Task: structure prediction
Amino acid sequence: MDKIQEIKLEKYETKDIHDAHINGSLNVIWRDWDNVILNHPKMVYVTSVNPQEIKGPHLHLKRHSYFTCIHGEVIFIIQENNGNYVEIKSNPENPNLIHVPPNVATAHVNISKDVSKILVLADVAWRPNDNEMLNVTFDDYNWNKWESKIN
Result:
């Protein structure tokens, strides 16, 4: 699939084994039998974005990337091939998986006061000096609008 996609993820409460009180939660990111990710991941990693910082924008030339925020809150800014921007919020409370196909630029804006962590699944594994990533700019994007959204 070569389009930007937001996939809502399943979230389950977990319970204590003694008295069944809720002791946390479980977010399902990926299962091989869901067929959400057609090219199974070859690399999984966590990237972080410091408070009120922007990571990117950049694009990957060969890989499909799947992002979900596992700590904090981020806005994924994705530039479609027609130049329009898509903004998708991600956080652990309302889990989602954002698919960004190859040659589509994205940036991650941390709108929380703490370091945000993003789990990334990719169908092509990164290698040092493989020149698979290209930094770009979103010169016509209004970055200032996120300053008032910092939690």
About this structure: The chain has no helices and twelve strands. The chain has a mean pLDDT of 93. The longest strand covers residues 43-49. The CA atoms of residues 89 and 128 lie 30 Å apart.
